[in-house]
């Protein structure tokens, strides 16, 4: 059973907030966010291929992956600023197709009665950059990715 994903992007501010609960312990949900092999199994929509080329999910580490389908691949990269096991990930993100448009994401992991609630707060450099990300179907990718994470955690 998939839980609801709430994505909020209020007008006039360059933020996207996402809240989601998973029927799994915090340690499992956190591990799926920091282990590159697990990440490749759930991040993004089902039809997308994900090629993780670097993923050092430690404080100060960097990451890079390519995602796409039907031969059209797009690169994404960033730096992990803070990684506190089972609690917090703060990282930058940048789409290779929009250089110098670096955002920052803060994700917290909270145990709620044997389940895990994650809260992600993304800050884009401008409202326009945020709106462009939303226009590419980011919400669909997030929602379907979390459904895939539900399946991975249940298996």
Spans of 5+ residues with little confidence (pLDDT < 50)?
Answer: none
Structural class label? alpha+beta
Oligomer: single chain
Q: How confident is the prediction overall: mean pLDDT?
A: 94
Number of domains as seen in the coordinates = 1
Total of helices: 4
Q: Can you list the strand order of the major beta sheet?
A: 1-2-8-7-6-5-4-3
Give a short account of the largest sheet. 8 strands, antiparallel
CATH superfamily: START domain
How many β-strands, per DSSP? 8
Q: Give the terminus-to-terminus CA distance.
A: 12 Å
> What is the CATH class designation?
Alpha Beta
**In one word, what is the shape?**
globular
Cα Rg: 15 Å
Helix content: 25-40%
Order of helices and strands: EEHHEEEEEEHH
Taken as a percent bin, the fraction of beta residues is 35-45%
* CATH topology call: Alpha-D-Glucose-1,6-Bisphosphate, Chain A, domain 4
| Named CATH architecture | 2-Layer Sandwich
Written description of the protein model:
The protein has helices at 26-34, 36-42, 127-135, 138-154, and strands at 5-8, 15-22, 49-55, 62-69, 72-84, 88-95, 103-112, 115-123. The protein has one domain (5-154): START domain (Alpha-D-Glucose-1,6-Bisphosphate, Chain A, domain 4), CATH 3.30.530.20. By secondary structure, it is an alpha+beta fold. The chain is globular, with a radius of gyration of 15 Å. Helix 1 packs across helix 2 (36-42). A hairpin with a 2-residue loop joins strand 7 and strand 8 (115-123). The model has no long low-confidence stretch (mean pLDDT 94). The protein has an 8-stranded antiparallel beta sheet with strand order 1-2-8-7-6-5-4-3, with helices on one face. It is 27% helix and 43% strand.
